[in-house]
Structures are given as structure tokens and as C-alpha cells.
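re: that chain from earlier
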Amino acid sequence: MKRRIPTLLLPFFFLGATSYAQVEFPRTPSGRPDFNGHYDISTLTPFERPASYGNRLSLNEEEVNALREREMGIRARDAESSDPDRDAPEEGGNIGSYNDFWFDRGNDGFVIDGQYRTSILTYPENGRMPSRTSEGQLKADAAPKFAWPERDGAWWLETGDQPYDGPENQTLAVRCIYHQPATIPITPRVYNNLKTIVQTDEYFMLYIEWMHWARIIRIDDEHHPEVLATFDGDSVGRWERDTLVVETVNFMDQPYQPAQRQVIERFSPEPEGGLIYSFTVEDADYSDTYSGEMVWPRSDQVPYEYACHEGNYAMSATLMGARVREAEHRAANGSDD
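^ sequence. v structure.
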């Protein structure tokens, strides 16, 4: 990717319009690019590239317009009022989730170097995640599940699975503790896409309102020992001219085991006043590295608390329902175990 210099006179393209902009990026008293502020990273550009695009990195204007029209049509349909006289959902079927009002996928994709991107992922060349290694797949299969398939009865007593023994058997996201895809590398989700940066000469803080997570990046420091592994790893930054390069190691995965993973992130000034965020992940659980980049536009909005469990009875109701099913299973099978 071509890096930006402090004063720019570059053409940029957006939905077929070409113009010129000269931007002097704000700087801190020490002369570094000043990234302090809020950023809205919601985007229509998908994380993974649709397979039909193959190795194409960019869309043409016709494809851009089709993408926007398709998304707006989906939103209009999903925002329609529900029929109050409709029947109950089919038993055991998918009842859906929130209505469209609560989602925030952005209104457009992003442009880098004059190209409207087909995906956030840029490597592998097909813009899709590499396959897991055999060891990585075993690890994923053994990890807590976000959702288990709905089946009759306390089926887990027959299979030996432990989906509902207690909160510890649920994912960190279900428990409202931590959400890795929103945190490192940072990627857009269906909502809560506002990010906040607080920057000093010694620290770079990324506030991610997915369970109030703040990543504290130390500038020009040494990494902590591996024994101090955390879910979001140990992040140390360094300046390479006007780009902040952040290296993160010492990750821990659920259920509390070390992860052989390294993430390199780069924060660079962007002509419109936002920043270019790029990342490369080397993970022993995958057969290849993967990389991506996207624009973070500045925003005058501020993030609000993601009160994940406020008034949320899902966890207690899930566990109570599991105990009821287990009691019914034991009664039906004449067992007190």
C-alpha cells in the first residue's frame, strides 16, 4: 500500500467522481500525526470477498451502485412493520434476531488508493480466510460454542457434551466479557462500530465498546513475559515516519490456553482526515497468514455504553432451562444421576 506523507495533493475516487484535495493532517506537539478522536468504521465492504470476485481487489462503478442498491433494498424490507396477527414461529425453527433498526452496517464501502474495495481482506489474494490447520480445527471444535443446535431433550447427557453446565461453558462474548473480532485485529461488526483513540507520546489507547474493552498500547517499550498472556495480547507500538506500527503477542484463547499468534497493525494518516488501518495476522491455528486494510473515517459521534447484560435474563434462563430438561431426562430414564 502506498503510504501517505504529511501534505498531500492526490486524486481520490468515490463512486465515479474524481477531484483533488490537499490535506495537512493534524499533529501532536511532538510532531506525530494526531489520531485523537472518534472513528466510525461501519462499512458495506465485507470482511471476506465474495467468491464470485476471485482475486479482484476492486469494484467498478456499476458494481458499487448495485451493492448499495441491494443493501438499501434489504434494509427497507427488514424495516417493514411486522404483522401483529401473524402465527407463532415454527417449533424449533429460527425466530430471527433484532429488527433492522438496531443494526449499523454503514451506508457505503471505502476507497483506498482510488479503488473501491471488494473486501477488507487483501491476503490471501482471494480475499478469504485461509483454512485452519488440523490442530487449529481440533482446537476450534473443543472451544465453547456461541450457539448449540436445538434438539429435543437433554441430548448432552447422551453425547457427553457440556454446553450448559455453567457460565464457563459459554463463549466470552455470550458472557459479555470480551469479543475478539471487534478487538484485534479490529473489524466492523453489525453494530457498535464507533472507536475512540486517546494518544500521548508514551501510550496509544483504543477504546472498543464491545464490553467496555480498552487496549493500552505502550510506545517504544519491551513486551511483557509470555506468562502474562491476555485475551487481547500485549501490544507495543513504534513510529515509522507517520505510521504507528503495533506488534501484539502473548495471546490467550478460551478456555484459558496460550495462543501462538502475532498481530501487526498499522495506523496511517488518510487524505480525508481519517486513518488507514491495516493488519497482518500470523496464527498457528491457520495454514497461512492473513492481511487486510480499511479506512477509518473520523466521526463527531461518541460511543455509548454497550450494556450487554443489563436487563438480560438469557444466561440464567438458559441454565435454568437446561436443569429442567435434565430433570425430565432423568425421570424418563429412571435415573437419579
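The first helix runs from residue 61 to 78.
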